[in-house]
């Protein structure tokens, strides 16, 4: 138990007062255990005063976890050279004997896992301050709110959370002693002179679903260390599955249709596949870019952004393709840059459309053009997964309902992926069941720099949430199906693909074309335009896209562009659904029957279309 006498030199009377004010036994036990295990020098407890948040930022600068850049408010943090992304290989659920999450989800024995991770945490805070922060997932005082406590020795982690998360100390008081909160314990482990974790071979991210607690050690990369992001998403998916709501890897945004109409969409895209840039499209409004909770409130789907900041990929952010983000990153405000190139106090990154300096400092230390790492590989100026962290309130395109406790009404869901040769740029599902099964549960995407490992490999990624699903996959599909069926009128479901390429490897679309796909989906939600039937859903008519390209992008859209982009590629589609069905058949023990039935009907429709039109169907032929 947490008493001052037990931790005399560590816990001050003021610390004790802040903790006891929350009057929560489970919290006291969690903190007391963390103190005895990690052995900090002292505590800093954030109670959400502006001075507390300023102190967190100051600590990050004092320890060297971050350093200031020339623009006021901007700082930079480096993660270790081998600590640049989420680490699925060392992320695991802790399960009791007899429990299983199926073959696709990494789990280990709970007792053994706790023993291992606690051995790395032991004494890890020596001569460091234990930072304890309280956050609220979702807007405060809302049916969506979930309280969370983060313990960390990294002021960078706490600082990131103070930008990304809603404050939660008062919300914790409202818990009234209940154990209904998520808990995160993080330790950076031994650090080098750049303040980066060194023992990455002992990097572990272990998730205890029963206790709703996550332990993470020997890493600083935010996707592994910032509890409130992907670690909380895992716990939320688990919790949501028993309460008929959804916790998803999705942006939330307002699509601005005709006559001032705003229609809210969520969008699930694997990491680094255009999720943030869709949510930040010009003339639209962003509610959130990464994680959404969706609930049935009085028969309607409503959704919130779990966070209130963005931890976005900086690569290729430039004034032409991402004008809103670029402006936010070049204006004085509280922004953390990570793993960019810094020269003369300025951040640089690949694809920013400015000349990069030949020398500077980056995640590898001192950097110069042509530098090779210890494996002889070229070190890029900025890491491909380099990021920025910024509050949504810094953005002029923030939606006015971002913090609404009731969320926003959800009318459409978009499932995207990185796919060079199969899916058309946008297609609406015929109904909720087909949308969940043929779009969300069938996502395959080529891998990116957001996780460690080889890039460009086509990988099954259910709802773009594969890295985070914390329940057996069949049950996850079933929850999604049930959720839609519990609504009076479920949201329309769409697939998008921004990554179609021609035989020379050139992309078939411009980066901002996604505006048109989104606004066509907006029109479809309101039945404002008809659509063309394909074996897998409904695609746009050419004549409905032409005015959208002209009005929104000032672009001529040719029949030839349309034909190339919207050709129905039957052999690729048959192969895709065959691959995905095979995954469900061979690796998912609890696949609902409706999934196989839906694949069967779809295959029959694809084969019938192939017989009538051939392998590659010109969309104009279907429109006749
Ligand atoms: C992602 O990779 O999907 C991100 C960044 O949003 S991380 O916090 O690493 O998950
Ligand atoms: Mn993400």
CATH topology of the largest domain: Phosphoenolpyruvate Carboxykinase, domain 3
* Separate helix tally: 18
Radius of gyration: 24 Å
CATH architecture verdict of the largest domain: Alpha-Beta Complex
Number of domains: 3
Q: Which descriptor suits the 3D outline?
A: globular
Strands, total number: 34
* Mean of pLDDT: 96
Subunit structure: Monomer.
Subcellular location: Cytoplasm
Pathway: Carbohydrate biosynthesis; gluconeogenesis
Organism: Anaerohalosphaera lusitana
Sequence-ordered SSE layout with sheet pairings:
Blueprint: H1 13-20, H2 25-38, E1 42-45, H3 50-63, E2 67-68, E3 74-77, E4 91-95, E5 107-109, H4 110-121, E6 129-137, E7 146-152, H5 155-164, E8 166-167, H6 169-174, E9 181-187, E10 204-208, E11 213-217, H7 222-225, H8 227-241, E12 246-248, E13 250-256, E14 262-268, H9 275-279, E15 285-288, E16 292-297, E17 300-305, E18 309-313, H10 323-329, E19 335-338, E20 341-343, E21 346-348, E22 359-362, E23 365-368, E24 387-391, E25 408-409, E26 412-417, E27 426-428, H11 432-439, E28 444-446, E29 458-460, H12 473-485, E30 492-497, H13 514-525, E31 532-534, E32 537-539, H14 542-553, H15 559-566, E33 568-569, H16 570-587, H17 593-613, E34 616-617, H18 619-623
Parallel strand pairs: 1-6, 3-19, 4-5, 4-10, 7-9, 9-11, 14-26, 26-30
Antiparallel strand pairs: 2-3, 6-7, 6-8, 10-11, 12-16, 13-14, 13-15, 16-17, 17-25, 18-24, 19-24, 20-21, 22-23, 27-30, 28-29, 31-32, 33-34
The site of sulfopyruvate has 9 residues, from helix 7 and helix 8.
Keywords summarizing the entry:
Phosphoenolpyruvate Carboxykinase, domain 1, nine-stranded mixed β-sheet, Phosphoenolpyruvate Carboxykinase, domain 3, 34 strands, cytoplasm, six-stranded mixed β-sheet, binds manganese (II) ion, 3 domains, 31% helix, alpha+beta, 18 helices, Phosphoenolpyruvate Carboxykinase, domain 2, Phosphoenolpyruvate carboxykinase [GTP], 624 residues, binds sulfopyruvate
């Amino acid at each position: 138990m947490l008493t001052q006498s037990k931790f005399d030199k560590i816990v001050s009377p003021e610390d004790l007062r802040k903790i006891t004010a929350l009057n929560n036994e489970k919290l006291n036990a969690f903190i007391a255990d963390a103190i005895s295990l990690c052995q900090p020098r002292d505590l800093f407890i954030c109670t959400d005063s502006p001075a507390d948040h300023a102190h967190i930022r100051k600590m990050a600068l004092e320890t060297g976890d971050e350093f200031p850049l020339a623009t006021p408010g901007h700082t930079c943090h480096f993660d270790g050279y081998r600590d640049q992304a989420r680490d699925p290989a060392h992320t695991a659920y802790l399960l009791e004997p007899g429990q299983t999450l199926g073959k696709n989800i990494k789990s280990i024995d709970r007792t053994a896992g706790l023993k291992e991770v606690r051995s790395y945490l032991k004494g890890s805070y020596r001569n460091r301050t234990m930072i304890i922060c309280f956050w609220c997932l979702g807007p405060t005082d809302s049916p969506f709110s979930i309280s969370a406590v983060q313990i960390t020795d990294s002021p960078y982690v706490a600082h990131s959370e103070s930008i990304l998360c809603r404050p939660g100390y008062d919300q914790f008081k409202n818990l009234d002693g209940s154990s209904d909160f998520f808990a995160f314990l993080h330790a950076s482990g031994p650090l080098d002179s750049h303040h980066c974790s060194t023992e990455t071979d002992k990097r572990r991210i272990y998730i205890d679903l029963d206790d709703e607690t996550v332990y993470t050690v020997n890493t600083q990369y935010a996707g592994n260390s910032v509890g409130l992001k992907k670690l909380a998403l895992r716990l939320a998916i688990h919790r949501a599955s028993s309460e008929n709501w959804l916790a998803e890897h999705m942006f939330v945004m307002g699509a601005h249709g005709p006559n001032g109409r705003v229609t809210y969409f969520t969008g699930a895209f694997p990491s680094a596949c255009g999720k943030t840039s869709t949510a930040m499209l010009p003339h639209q409004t962003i509610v959130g870019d990464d994680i959404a909770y969706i609930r049935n409130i009085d028969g309607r789907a409503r959704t919130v952004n779990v966070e209130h900041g963005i931890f976005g990929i900086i690569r290729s952010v430039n004034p032409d393709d991402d004008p809103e983000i670029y402006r936010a990153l070049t204006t004085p405000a509280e922004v953390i840059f990570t793993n960019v190139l810094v020269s003369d106090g300025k951040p640089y990154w690949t694809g920013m459309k400015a000349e990069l300096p030949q020398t500077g400092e980056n995640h590898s230390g001192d950097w110069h053009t042509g530098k090779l790492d210890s494996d002889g590989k070229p070190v890029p100026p900025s890491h491909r997964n380099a990021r920025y962290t910024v509050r949504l309130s810094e953005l002029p395109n923030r939606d006015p309902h971002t913090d609404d406790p009731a969320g926003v009404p959800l009318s459409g869901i978009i499932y995207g992926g990185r796919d060079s040769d199969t899916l058309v740029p946008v297609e609406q599902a015929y109904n909720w069941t087909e949308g969940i099964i043929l779009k969300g549960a069938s996502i395959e995407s080529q891998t990116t720099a957001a996780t460690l490992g080889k890039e460009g490999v086509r990988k099954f990624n259910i709802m773009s949430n594969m890295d985070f699903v914390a329940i057996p996959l069949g049950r996850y599909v079933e929850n999604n199906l049930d959720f839609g069926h519990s609504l009076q009128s479920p949201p329309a479901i769409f697939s998008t693909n921004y990554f179609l390429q021609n035989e020379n490897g050139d992309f078939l679309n411009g980066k901002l074309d996604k505006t048109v796909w989104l606004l066509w989906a907006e029109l479809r939600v309101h039945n404002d335009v008809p659509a063309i039937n394909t074996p897998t859903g409904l695609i746009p008519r050419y004549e409905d896209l032409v005015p959208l390209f002209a009005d929104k992008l000032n672009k001529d859209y040719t029949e030839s562009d349309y034909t190339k982009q919207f050709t129905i590629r039957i052999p690729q589609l048959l192969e895709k659904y065959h691959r995905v069905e095979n995954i469900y058949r061979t690796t998912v023990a609890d696949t609902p029957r409706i999934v196989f039935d839906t694949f069967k009907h779809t295959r029959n429709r694809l084969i019938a279309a192939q017989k009538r039109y051939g392998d590659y169907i010109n969309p104009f032929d279907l429109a006749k």
